[in-house]
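Exercise 3.2. Students should predict the tertiary structure of the chain below and write it as structure tokens, then compare their answer with the key that follows.

Predict this chain's 3D structure.
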Amino acid sequence: LMVANRSGVVLALDPNTGEIKWRRRVGVARAPAFAGFNGSIIVTTIDSLFRLAGSDGRVLERRRSIGTVLSPWIVHRDYRIAGTTDSQIVAMLPDALEPAWSVPLDAPVLGTPILSGDTIFALTRIGTLYRIPISPAPMAERLIATRSAFLSSPVLVKNWIIAGSADGMLYG
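Answer key:
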């Protein structure tokens, strides 16, 4: 079990006993770590991507961040997909710390994009909803621009995308 705390430390815990197996200072991480390949762990901090050895926390690889990720990554087949504060949706493969692809949007993505089949829906900070069909070279399609501040993730309920804005409005 991997846990990132507010002081920028990743801890590996034994899930049965709670015993700390190892700890590694990497910097502040806002999104949960995810499994890489060969037992490694991928951690995204404010400014870097790390591949840590799951067995002892050694830093196996470090790269400059592809953009600050503030919410959990979603999984689509082999891809790990997230929105960034650099106004893009990025996809990574667990065996690489470079993006497999990225799609620019009009503003930061603060919440987790949602996935429906082979399509991502992302809501930007300024209220634009995008549809992004997943492909080797995806393109974003603007569906609506509300110009309301959205600070959290949208939710998929049946065929509805529901999102609450900072001004107290609920959009569907």
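Discussion points: The two ends are 36 Å apart (CA to CA). The chain has a mean pLDDT of 92.
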